[in-house]
Amino acid sequence: YMGTSLLTFIPAEVMAAKGKSGVAVEASAVVLTTAPSTTPLFPGSEKPTTAELEFDHDVRTVSFVPASAVDVLMRKIQELFGESEALVLVFDYGRNGEKRIVIRQTDELQAACITWPGSPRLRFGVELLSFVDINFDALCLRRLKLLDDPRRLARLDKRITDRFEVPGSSFIMQMRGVGDVMHEFSIFHALALIMKHRQIAHAIIVAVGGNIIKSEGEKTFVSFADPAQAVLAGVLVNNALDDYNATTGGEAAMQIRVSIGIDTGRLLLIPHDFYGDCVNVSSKLGEDTATAGQMLITKETYDLIRGDRRFHPINFTPATAQRSGVQLHYFEVSGRPSPAVAEAALAHLSAAADVASQLSLGAHHRESTFAKLCRQRLLQDRAGNTSFVDERIRERYEQRKVIMVSDMSGFTRTVKKHGILHFLTIIMRMREICVPILREHGGHLVKFVADDLVFLFDSPDLAVRGVLRAQAELRKWNATMEPDSRATMHLGMDFGDVLNAVDDEDVYGYHRNRAEKLGEDEADDEEILITESMAAELKGRYELSEVREVDGDDETIRFVQVIREL
Question: What does pTM read for this prediction?
Answer without folding.
Answer: 0.76
